[in-house]
Amino acid sequence: MSVRTSQVSCCVAGGGPAGMMLGLLLARAGVRVQVLEKHADFLRDFRGDTIHPSTLELMHELGLLEELLRLPHQELSRLVARVGDVALPIADFSRVPTRCKFIAIMPQWDFLDFLARRAARYAGFQLEMRAEATGLIEEGGRVTGVRGEASRGPFEVRADLVVAADGRGSVLRDRAGLEVEDLGAPMDVLWFRLSRAPGDSTDTMGRFDVGRIFVLINRGDHWQCGYVIPKGSAEEVRRRGLEAFRAGVTALVPFAAGRVAEIRSWDDVKLLTVKVDRLRRWYRPGLLCIGDAAHAMSPVGGVGINLAIQDAVAAANRLASPLRERRLITEHLRLVQRRREWPTRVTQWLQVIVQRRVIGATLGRRDGRLTPPRLLTVLARRGLLTGLPARLVGVGVRPEHVQTREVA
Known about the structure:
This protein is an alpha+beta fold.
């Protein structure tokens, strides 16, 4: 079978939030860019469905905010944690310094479709679905393109820059031989749905009890539920049986007692294997990694998508002109890592602290009664706790802004 070949300025492997945002921004800035997405569509359940205030701010800067918010979504204005029998307000997004003071809960496939449609308005943008990048093309010590398999057969894309935005299991990162630093995680998460009733709380919350943690995300007509389990224990949970699992859910969220039968089989429960890692170096000549391919984030705070999109904006800000003018050098890639590495490290440091001191400690408890520290309770009641977490979750350590100009 013949191999299709093409030539672009930038080839982006991965059509997730980082890849699609980068594709949109580069095409808008007059760069010829091709995005490769290995699936036939964006329809995957239990992906991160949060669009943070800082991302909504970016949509405003691009003139797309009102159009985006016309899509079905829920608006999350605060986060609540229930520790034992005590409910604590953890984050109040009305206090963040952005235009939208909420997290928009929107199916990720709708958000990605939205970005793809807007990017398609630019002549230099190409999106190929069912096209998986499986290897790198290298010449003279420099990455000059990708090889892959698509529904139309094998292909090669030659490019001045290849961007690996293909997630925490990045094939291109592995092919490039970039060194990964594993920070570890004490938990995995089992995701599933339960229906919502009219009398249910509207809050999105985390429920902490002795040896157990449960997350409830309000999705309008249903709850997206996350049952947090010790790392590597998913098979043991399955061995205990579905009835035991349903009973564990009911013990944590009693209002769900009449709904756990909606978990009909283990096919309704999806395992998220939690990884927290980062590359020591995000680039090689001709190749840049962003998003989860550069740094897999813990689900703590749900900030992974936010970090990935910020990477894409920072990359577009620094690379659009060199790509358009065919003067890209490796130093430009180093500057992207330099810009984004510090916020990534700070965020992961905070996540690892929460994993060790809160999540790991809670999952490791076998007896007693779980109560929040008194200082935490006092701060929450006085409203002194919610501002900083809201800023960290909703905006991030170093928010990016669109600096590229639209090229007609």
